[in-house]
Write a structure and sequence with these properties.
- It is a single chain.
- By secondary structure, this protein is an alpha/beta fold.
- The chain folds into two domains: 5-169, Phosphoglycerate kinase, N-terminal domain (Rossmann fold, 3-Layer(aba) Sandwich), CATH 3.40.50; 177-381, Phosphoglycerate kinase, N-terminal domain (Rossmann fold, 3-Layer(aba) Sandwich).
- It contains 14 helices and 17 strands.
- Strand 16, helix 12 (352-360) and strand 17 (369-371) form a beta-alpha-beta unit.
- Helix 1 packs across helix 2 and helix 8 (222-228) crosses helix 9 (243-255).
- It is globular and about 65 Å long.
- It starts with 13 loop residues before the first strand and ends with a helix.
- The structure holds adenosine monophosphate.
- Adenosine monophosphate (AMP) is lined by residues 194-197, 219-220, 237, 291-292, 316-317, 319-320, 322, 351, 353.
Length: 395
Protein backbone atom coordinates (compact mmCIF):
# COMPACT_ATOMS: atom_id res chain seq x y z
CA UNK A 1 0.00 0.00 0.00
CA UNK A 2 1.21 3.50 -0.78
CA UNK A 3 1.84 5.56 2.34
CA UNK A 4 0.83 9.18 2.52
CA UNK A 5 2.77 11.99 4.16
CA UNK A 6 0.68 12.09 7.33
CA UNK A 7 1.81 8.59 8.32
CA UNK A 8 5.49 9.51 8.81
CA UNK A 9 7.23 10.78 11.92
CA UNK A 10 9.46 13.41 10.33
CA UNK A 11 11.09 14.97 13.38
CA UNK A 12 14.87 15.27 12.94
CA UNK A 13 14.65 13.53 9.56
CA UNK A 14 15.98 14.67 6.20
CA UNK A 15 13.10 14.38 3.75
CA UNK A 16 14.03 14.10 0.08
CA UNK A 17 11.05 15.30 -1.96
CA UNK A 18 10.69 14.82 -5.72
CA UNK A 19 8.73 17.92 -6.72
CA UNK A 20 7.59 19.13 -10.13
CA UNK A 21 9.11 22.57 -10.60
CA UNK A 22 8.90 22.33 -14.40
CA UNK A 23 7.54 25.86 -14.73
CA UNK A 24 7.34 28.21 -17.72
CA UNK A 25 10.30 30.60 -17.92
CA UNK A 26 10.83 33.77 -19.91
CA UNK A 27 14.47 34.83 -20.20
CA UNK A 28 15.31 32.90 -17.05
CA UNK A 29 12.42 34.27 -14.96
CA UNK A 30 9.49 32.19 -13.71
CA UNK A 31 6.34 33.42 -15.48
CA UNK A 32 3.87 31.12 -13.69
CA UNK A 33 4.56 29.72 -10.22
CA UNK A 34 1.47 27.46 -10.09
CA UNK A 35 3.49 24.26 -9.76
CA UNK A 36 5.77 25.76 -7.08
CA UNK A 37 2.75 26.86 -5.04
CA UNK A 38 1.17 23.44 -5.49
CA UNK A 39 4.17 21.82 -3.75
CA UNK A 40 4.05 24.17 -0.73
CA UNK A 41 1.60 22.17 1.46
CA UNK A 42 3.97 19.18 1.42
CA UNK A 43 7.10 21.28 1.99
CA UNK A 44 5.45 23.28 4.78
CA UNK A 45 4.21 20.12 6.47
CA UNK A 46 7.73 18.61 6.54
CA UNK A 47 9.26 21.82 7.89
CA UNK A 48 6.55 22.18 10.54
CA UNK A 49 7.11 18.59 11.64
CA UNK A 50 10.75 19.42 12.39
CA UNK A 51 12.43 17.97 9.28
CA UNK A 52 15.12 19.30 6.96
CA UNK A 53 13.93 19.28 3.34
CA UNK A 54 15.86 18.46 0.16
CA UNK A 55 14.02 19.18 -3.10
CA UNK A 56 14.76 17.76 -6.54
CA UNK A 57 13.06 18.45 -9.87
CA UNK A 58 13.56 18.59 -13.59
CA UNK A 59 12.97 21.64 -15.77
CA UNK A 60 12.41 21.42 -19.52
CA UNK A 61 14.24 18.99 -21.78
CA UNK A 62 18.01 19.66 -21.54
CA UNK A 63 18.63 16.08 -22.75
CA UNK A 64 21.45 15.23 -20.35
CA UNK A 65 23.46 18.40 -20.91
CA UNK A 66 23.94 21.47 -18.73
CA UNK A 67 21.84 24.31 -20.11
CA UNK A 68 22.03 27.53 -18.10
CA UNK A 69 18.65 28.62 -19.50
CA UNK A 70 17.08 25.64 -17.76
CA UNK A 71 18.72 26.13 -14.37
CA UNK A 72 16.50 25.85 -11.29
CA UNK A 73 18.18 28.92 -9.72
CA UNK A 74 15.31 31.25 -10.63
CA UNK A 75 12.83 28.65 -9.36
CA UNK A 76 14.79 28.66 -6.09
CA UNK A 77 14.39 32.44 -5.89
CA UNK A 78 10.63 32.17 -6.37
CA UNK A 79 10.46 29.38 -3.79
CA UNK A 80 12.47 31.41 -1.24
CA UNK A 81 10.02 34.31 -1.75
CA UNK A 82 7.01 32.05 -1.26
CA UNK A 83 8.50 30.36 1.83
CA UNK A 84 9.71 33.76 3.11
CA UNK A 85 13.10 32.28 4.04
CA UNK A 86 16.47 31.76 2.40
CA UNK A 87 17.14 28.34 0.89
CA UNK A 88 20.33 26.52 -0.07
CA UNK A 89 21.03 25.64 -3.70
CA UNK A 90 23.47 23.14 -5.23
CA UNK A 91 24.49 23.43 -8.85
CA UNK A 92 24.81 19.67 -9.42
CA UNK A 93 22.24 17.27 -8.01
CA UNK A 94 24.68 14.40 -7.37
CA UNK A 95 28.00 16.12 -6.57
CA UNK A 96 29.77 15.43 -3.28
CA UNK A 97 29.28 19.07 -2.34
CA UNK A 98 25.53 18.74 -2.87
CA UNK A 99 25.43 15.59 -0.76
CA UNK A 100 27.46 17.28 2.02
CA UNK A 101 25.06 20.23 1.98
CA UNK A 102 22.11 17.85 2.40
CA UNK A 103 23.87 16.02 5.24
CA UNK A 104 24.56 19.36 6.92
CA UNK A 105 21.10 20.96 6.75
CA UNK A 106 19.31 21.64 10.02
CA UNK A 107 15.68 20.98 10.78
CA UNK A 108 13.56 23.68 9.18
CA UNK A 109 16.05 24.31 6.35
CA UNK A 110 15.49 23.74 2.61
CA UNK A 111 18.07 22.60 0.06
CA UNK A 112 17.18 22.70 -3.65
CA UNK A 113 19.17 20.59 -6.13
CA UNK A 114 19.94 21.66 -9.70
CA UNK A 115 17.93 20.29 -12.66
CA UNK A 116 17.93 16.47 -12.58
CA UNK A 117 17.84 16.26 -16.37
CA UNK A 118 21.28 17.84 -16.71
CA UNK A 119 22.22 14.16 -16.25
CA UNK A 120 21.10 11.75 -18.95
CA UNK A 121 20.88 9.06 -16.22
CA UNK A 122 17.72 10.65 -14.84
CA UNK A 123 15.46 9.81 -17.79
CA UNK A 124 17.17 6.44 -18.41
CA UNK A 125 16.29 5.48 -14.82
CA UNK A 126 19.93 4.63 -14.13
CA UNK A 127 20.43 2.54 -10.98
CA UNK A 128 23.67 4.17 -9.89
CA UNK A 129 22.21 7.65 -10.40
CA UNK A 130 19.15 6.85 -8.30
CA UNK A 131 21.44 5.50 -5.56
CA UNK A 132 23.43 8.78 -5.60
CA UNK A 133 20.21 10.80 -5.36
CA UNK A 134 18.99 8.69 -2.45
CA UNK A 135 21.96 9.85 -0.35
CA UNK A 136 20.22 13.21 0.10
CA UNK A 137 17.54 11.95 2.49
CA UNK A 138 16.32 9.45 5.09
CA UNK A 139 12.71 9.56 3.90
CA UNK A 140 11.60 9.76 0.26
CA UNK A 141 8.41 11.55 -0.70
CA UNK A 142 7.18 11.79 -4.28
CA UNK A 143 5.03 14.86 -4.86
CA UNK A 144 5.75 15.34 -8.59
CA UNK A 145 2.45 14.47 -10.20
CA UNK A 146 3.53 16.04 -13.50
CA UNK A 147 6.12 13.26 -14.06
CA UNK A 148 4.15 10.40 -12.50
CA UNK A 149 3.62 8.85 -15.97
CA UNK A 150 7.39 8.53 -16.48
CA UNK A 151 9.70 5.87 -15.05
CA UNK A 152 12.75 7.93 -14.17
CA UNK A 153 15.56 7.60 -11.62
CA UNK A 154 14.15 10.24 -9.25
CA UNK A 155 10.64 8.80 -9.04
CA UNK A 156 10.95 5.07 -9.83
CA UNK A 157 14.56 3.79 -9.49
CA UNK A 158 15.02 5.69 -6.25
CA UNK A 159 12.27 3.95 -4.27
CA UNK A 160 14.39 0.79 -3.83
CA UNK A 161 16.90 2.74 -1.76
CA UNK A 162 14.43 3.79 0.94
CA UNK A 163 12.57 2.00 3.71
CA UNK A 164 10.47 5.04 4.48
CA UNK A 165 8.75 6.34 1.34
CA UNK A 166 5.41 7.60 0.17
CA UNK A 167 3.48 10.32 -1.65
CA UNK A 168 2.98 13.97 -0.78
CA UNK A 169 -0.25 15.93 -0.52
CA UNK A 170 -0.28 17.05 -4.16
CA UNK A 171 0.09 13.51 -5.54
CA UNK A 172 -2.67 12.38 -3.21
CA UNK A 173 -5.00 15.24 -4.15
CA UNK A 174 -4.48 14.87 -7.91
CA UNK A 175 -4.95 11.11 -7.79
CA UNK A 176 -8.08 11.29 -5.69
CA UNK A 177 -9.68 14.07 -7.71
CA UNK A 178 -8.88 12.71 -11.16
CA UNK A 179 -9.83 9.12 -10.34
CA UNK A 180 -13.01 10.01 -8.53
CA UNK A 181 -14.25 12.55 -11.04
CA UNK A 182 -13.51 10.37 -14.02
CA UNK A 183 -14.82 7.13 -12.57
CA UNK A 184 -18.19 8.89 -12.52
CA UNK A 185 -17.76 10.61 -15.91
CA UNK A 186 -20.76 11.24 -18.09
CA UNK A 187 -20.84 11.12 -21.89
CA UNK A 188 -20.47 12.90 -24.22
CA UNK A 189 -16.76 13.18 -23.41
CA UNK A 190 -14.72 15.73 -25.35
CA UNK A 191 -10.94 15.83 -25.34
CA UNK A 192 -9.36 19.13 -26.45
CA UNK A 193 -5.72 18.91 -27.49
CA UNK A 194 -3.33 21.63 -28.58
CA UNK A 195 0.20 22.89 -28.04
CA UNK A 196 3.32 22.27 -30.06
CA UNK A 197 4.55 18.76 -29.19
CA UNK A 198 2.57 16.08 -30.97
CA UNK A 199 4.48 12.87 -30.16
CA UNK A 200 3.20 12.22 -26.63
CA UNK A 201 -0.29 13.50 -27.43
CA UNK A 202 -0.71 11.07 -30.32
CA UNK A 203 -0.35 8.06 -28.03
CA UNK A 204 -2.83 9.75 -25.72
CA UNK A 205 -5.39 9.95 -28.52
CA UNK A 206 -5.08 6.18 -29.02
CA UNK A 207 -5.80 5.62 -25.34
CA UNK A 208 -8.91 7.79 -25.50
CA UNK A 209 -10.47 6.22 -28.57
CA UNK A 210 -12.66 4.01 -26.37
CA UNK A 211 -13.48 6.83 -23.92
CA UNK A 212 -13.96 10.08 -25.85
CA UNK A 213 -16.79 10.89 -28.23
CA UNK A 214 -15.11 13.91 -29.78
CA UNK A 215 -11.49 15.09 -30.00
CA UNK A 216 -10.93 18.75 -30.86
CA UNK A 217 -7.41 19.47 -32.09
CA UNK A 218 -5.99 23.00 -32.14
CA UNK A 219 -2.57 24.58 -31.56
CA UNK A 220 0.54 23.74 -33.53
CA UNK A 221 -0.18 20.00 -33.53
CA UNK A 222 -3.24 20.53 -35.75
CA UNK A 223 -1.02 21.18 -38.79
CA UNK A 224 0.50 17.70 -38.77
CA UNK A 225 -3.07 16.33 -38.91
CA UNK A 226 -4.07 18.75 -41.69
CA UNK A 227 -0.96 17.76 -43.64
CA UNK A 228 -1.88 14.09 -43.13
CA UNK A 229 -5.22 14.95 -44.75
CA UNK A 230 -3.41 16.49 -47.72
CA UNK A 231 -3.96 20.18 -46.85
CA UNK A 232 -1.46 22.96 -47.58
CA UNK A 233 -0.33 24.43 -44.25
CA UNK A 234 2.20 27.00 -45.51
CA UNK A 235 5.05 27.56 -43.12
CA UNK A 236 3.14 26.32 -40.04
CA UNK A 237 4.63 23.97 -37.48
CA UNK A 238 4.61 20.39 -38.82
CA UNK A 239 6.29 17.31 -37.41
CA UNK A 240 7.07 15.46 -40.66
CA UNK A 241 8.00 12.26 -38.82
CA UNK A 242 4.53 12.15 -37.27
CA UNK A 243 2.43 12.61 -40.42
CA UNK A 244 1.98 8.86 -40.88
CA UNK A 245 1.04 8.35 -37.24
CA UNK A 246 -1.46 11.22 -37.48
CA UNK A 247 -2.95 9.52 -40.54
CA UNK A 248 -3.26 6.24 -38.59
CA UNK A 249 -4.94 8.04 -35.68
CA UNK A 250 -7.51 9.54 -38.06
CA UNK A 251 -8.27 6.06 -39.47
CA UNK A 252 -8.51 4.43 -36.02
CA UNK A 253 -10.80 7.20 -34.79
CA UNK A 254 -13.14 6.57 -37.73
CA UNK A 255 -13.32 2.87 -36.86
CA UNK A 256 -14.10 3.69 -33.22
CA UNK A 257 -16.72 6.31 -34.14
CA UNK A 258 -14.73 9.07 -32.49
CA UNK A 259 -15.17 12.43 -34.16
CA UNK A 260 -11.78 14.14 -34.70
CA UNK A 261 -12.42 17.84 -35.35
CA UNK A 262 -9.67 19.97 -36.89
CA UNK A 263 -9.53 23.78 -37.19
CA UNK A 264 -11.35 25.44 -40.08
CA UNK A 265 -9.32 28.64 -40.02
CA UNK A 266 -6.27 30.25 -38.46
CA UNK A 267 -4.81 33.61 -37.56
CA UNK A 268 -1.52 33.68 -39.46
CA UNK A 269 1.74 35.61 -39.38
CA UNK A 270 4.98 35.46 -41.34
CA UNK A 271 7.07 34.61 -38.24
CA UNK A 272 6.32 33.12 -34.84
CA UNK A 273 7.10 36.50 -33.27
CA UNK A 274 5.49 38.44 -36.13
CA UNK A 275 2.29 40.48 -36.29
CA UNK A 276 -0.99 38.88 -37.42
CA UNK A 277 -1.49 39.19 -41.19
CA UNK A 278 -5.10 37.96 -41.29
CA UNK A 279 -7.39 34.96 -41.02
CA UNK A 280 -6.94 32.14 -43.55
CA UNK A 281 -9.04 29.03 -44.07
CA UNK A 282 -7.41 25.61 -43.62
CA UNK A 283 -7.44 25.24 -47.41
CA UNK A 284 -5.45 28.31 -48.35
CA UNK A 285 -2.73 29.20 -45.86
CA UNK A 286 -0.16 31.04 -48.04
CA UNK A 287 3.24 29.39 -48.38
CA UNK A 288 5.01 32.18 -46.49
CA UNK A 289 2.57 32.20 -43.55
CA UNK A 290 2.23 30.17 -40.35
CA UNK A 291 -0.94 29.59 -38.36
CA UNK A 292 -0.42 30.82 -34.82
CA UNK A 293 -3.94 30.74 -33.39
CA UNK A 294 -7.26 29.15 -34.29
CA UNK A 295 -9.57 31.49 -36.20
CA UNK A 296 -13.15 32.69 -35.44
CA UNK A 297 -14.95 29.89 -37.35
CA UNK A 298 -12.93 27.27 -35.48
CA UNK A 299 -13.63 28.92 -32.12
CA UNK A 300 -17.33 28.90 -32.82
CA UNK A 301 -17.25 25.27 -34.00
CA UNK A 302 -15.22 24.10 -30.98
CA UNK A 303 -17.62 25.95 -28.66
CA UNK A 304 -20.61 24.12 -30.13
CA UNK A 305 -18.94 20.78 -29.42
CA UNK A 306 -18.10 21.86 -25.86
CA UNK A 307 -21.71 22.94 -25.31
CA UNK A 308 -22.89 19.43 -26.17
CA UNK A 309 -20.46 17.69 -23.77
CA UNK A 310 -20.79 16.63 -20.16
CA UNK A 311 -17.10 15.91 -19.54
CA UNK A 312 -14.33 17.97 -21.10
CA UNK A 313 -10.58 17.46 -20.76
CA UNK A 314 -8.24 20.15 -22.10
CA UNK A 315 -4.50 19.77 -22.62
CA UNK A 316 -2.46 22.14 -24.81
CA UNK A 317 -3.08 25.77 -25.79
CA UNK A 318 -4.96 26.61 -29.00
CA UNK A 319 -2.27 29.04 -30.17
CA UNK A 320 0.83 30.94 -29.16
CA UNK A 321 -1.09 32.31 -26.17
CA UNK A 322 2.02 33.89 -24.63
CA UNK A 323 1.60 36.60 -27.30
CA UNK A 324 -1.63 38.60 -26.86
CA UNK A 325 -2.14 38.66 -30.67
CA UNK A 326 -2.49 34.86 -30.70
CA UNK A 327 -4.18 34.30 -27.33
CA UNK A 328 -7.84 34.66 -28.38
CA UNK A 329 -8.44 30.98 -29.20
CA UNK A 330 -7.15 29.77 -25.83
CA UNK A 331 -8.96 32.56 -23.99
CA UNK A 332 -12.29 31.78 -25.66
CA UNK A 333 -11.97 28.05 -24.94
CA UNK A 334 -11.12 28.81 -21.30
CA UNK A 335 -14.18 31.10 -21.01
CA UNK A 336 -16.40 28.44 -22.57
CA UNK A 337 -15.15 25.80 -20.13
CA UNK A 338 -15.97 28.16 -17.25
CA UNK A 339 -19.47 28.63 -18.67
CA UNK A 340 -20.24 24.92 -19.07
CA UNK A 341 -18.77 24.12 -15.63
CA UNK A 342 -21.31 26.47 -14.11
CA UNK A 343 -24.04 24.57 -15.94
CA UNK A 344 -22.85 21.26 -14.44
CA UNK A 345 -20.22 19.85 -16.81
CA UNK A 346 -17.01 18.36 -15.42
CA UNK A 347 -14.01 20.23 -16.82
CA UNK A 348 -10.41 19.19 -16.25
CA UNK A 349 -7.51 21.28 -17.48
CA UNK A 350 -4.00 19.82 -17.45
CA UNK A 351 -0.44 20.58 -18.49
CA UNK A 352 2.02 23.32 -17.59
CA UNK A 353 1.22 25.66 -20.49
CA UNK A 354 -2.52 25.09 -20.39
CA UNK A 355 -2.58 25.70 -16.64
CA UNK A 356 -0.54 28.86 -17.26
CA UNK A 357 -2.99 29.93 -19.98
CA UNK A 358 -6.09 29.45 -17.84
CA UNK A 359 -4.47 31.32 -14.98
CA UNK A 360 -3.45 34.12 -17.32
CA UNK A 361 -7.09 34.50 -18.38
CA UNK A 362 -8.22 34.16 -14.72
CA UNK A 363 -10.57 31.23 -15.20
CA UNK A 364 -8.57 28.83 -12.99
CA UNK A 365 -11.22 28.86 -10.24
CA UNK A 366 -14.12 28.43 -12.66
CA UNK A 367 -13.30 24.92 -13.95
CA UNK A 368 -13.66 21.65 -12.01
CA UNK A 369 -9.92 20.98 -11.67
CA UNK A 370 -6.62 22.41 -12.92
CA UNK A 371 -4.09 19.59 -12.78
CA UNK A 372 -0.34 20.16 -12.42
CA UNK A 373 0.14 17.21 -14.77
CA UNK A 374 -0.46 17.23 -18.52
CA UNK A 375 0.52 13.78 -19.78
CA UNK A 376 0.15 12.35 -16.27
CA UNK A 377 -3.44 13.52 -15.86
CA UNK A 378 -4.45 12.23 -19.30
CA UNK A 379 -2.76 8.87 -18.75
CA UNK A 380 -4.44 8.48 -15.38
CA UNK A 381 -7.80 9.44 -16.87
CA UNK A 382 -7.30 6.98 -19.71
CA UNK A 383 -7.14 4.18 -17.12
CA UNK A 384 -3.37 3.68 -16.81
CA UNK A 385 -1.72 2.90 -13.46
CA UNK A 386 1.14 5.41 -13.50
CA UNK A 387 4.74 4.13 -12.99
CA UNK A 388 5.49 6.48 -10.08
CA UNK A 389 2.52 5.13 -8.10
CA UNK A 390 3.23 1.56 -9.18
CA UNK A 391 6.85 1.79 -7.96
CA UNK A 392 5.75 2.92 -4.49
CA UNK A 393 3.01 0.33 -4.31
CA UNK A 394 5.22 -2.59 -5.29
CA UNK A 395 8.37 -1.74 -3.30
P1 LIG B 1 3.03 21.83 -25.50
O1 LIG B 1 4.14 21.86 -24.46
O2 LIG B 1 3.21 20.80 -26.51
O3 LIG B 1 1.66 21.79 -24.84
O4 LIG B 1 3.14 23.19 -26.28
C1 LIG B 1 2.84 24.45 -25.71
C2 LIG B 1 3.34 25.51 -26.62
O5 LIG B 1 2.71 25.38 -27.89
C3 LIG B 1 3.04 26.92 -26.17
O6 LIG B 1 4.22 27.53 -25.74
C4 LIG B 1 2.47 27.61 -27.42
O7 LIG B 1 3.08 28.85 -27.68
C5 LIG B 1 2.81 26.62 -28.52
N1 LIG B 1 1.88 26.69 -29.65
C6 LIG B 1 0.54 26.65 -29.63
N2 LIG B 1 0.03 26.80 -30.85
C7 LIG B 1 1.06 26.95 -31.71
C8 LIG B 1 1.17 27.14 -33.12
N3 LIG B 1 0.08 27.24 -33.89
N4 LIG B 1 2.41 27.23 -33.64
C9 LIG B 1 3.51 27.14 -32.85
N5 LIG B 1 3.47 26.96 -31.51
C10 LIG B 1 2.26 26.86 -30.95
Amino acid sequence: MIKNLNTFDLKNKRVLIRVDFNVPLDRGRVTDDFRIRAALPTIDHCLNQGAGVVLMSHLGRPKGKIDKNLSLISVGESLADLLEMPIKFSDDCVSEDARDTSLGISNGEVHLLENLRFHEEETSNNLHFSMLLSKHGDVFINDAFGTAHRAHASNVGIVNHFKQKGIGFLMEKEYRFLKESFDRHKHPVTLILGGAKIDTKLSMIHRFLNKADTILIGGGMAFTFLKAKGKEVGNSLVDDEMINSAHNVIQSAKQCNVNIVLPLDFICAKKIDGKPEGVFSNRDIPLNMMGLDIGPKTISNFKQHIDQSNTILWNGPMGVFENEDFATGSKEIAAKLAEVTEKGATTIVGGGDTAAAIRKFRFQNDVSHVSTGGGASLELLSGEFLPAFKALELS
